[in-house]
Amino acid sequence: MTAQASDHGAGSPRDSLRAAADTMRAVRERCVWSQRITHRDLVPYLIEESHEVIDAVESGTRDDLREELGDLLWQVLFHAAIAAQDPDDPFDIDDVADTLTEKMVRRHPHVFAGETATTPEEVLVHWNAAKAAEKRTRTSVLDGVPRGMPALALAQKLAGRAAGAGIDAPVADGPSSEAELGEALLALVGRARAEGWDAERALRERLRVLEQDVRSAEG
């Protein structure tokens, strides 16, 4: 850690975040490995760190969660440090934070702009209205869904978007709890394994059909 980063390490949470950003910038500038890393190179690490946060939430300790959140934050700082060196369109962690703050203020008018929301459902109305205003250039409810998500997470995301277009994804009878759903999903994967099928591919191919149905319905 640089002397500058150490000086900022104590005090307010903002000072701690600044120290982390300063430390990342020093690593980017002085570490020969970090100097060569691109946004694309970092993607596998970002995915891995995200899953480690999930593990910490679901089965780890408080110390595990604190550490893994820090590792995930480091990925954000790393991407921002890379972006700051872009010769054509640079931005840094302060730009990222400012954009985030503006978005969160805009999407919470019941907190920052005098609107009223007394239930989670009313909060969602404000949130969706703000998102819709931001995304006027989008032509489909499916726009903006990251296709790199694991198939099961992608299926849940697309099913929700499809419902917004009036297309209902198939609903299976049977499970009445998350635990029973887990059992059913594992049983389906077991069947796929026994048959030599690729469960991930099978779901992705079915999702392509769902996407086609949604886009057809949208005209």
TrEMBL record:
Region (Disordered): 1-20
Domain NTP pyrophosphohydrolase MazG-like: 38-112
Source domain of life: Bacteria
Protein name (Swiss-Prot/TrEMBL): MazG family protein
InterPro entries: MazG-like_dom, NTP-PPase_MazG-like_N, NTP_PyrPHydrolase_MazG
Pfam families (UniProt xref): MazG
Upper taxonomic lineage: Bacteria, Bacillati, Actinomycetota, Actinomycetes, Micrococcales
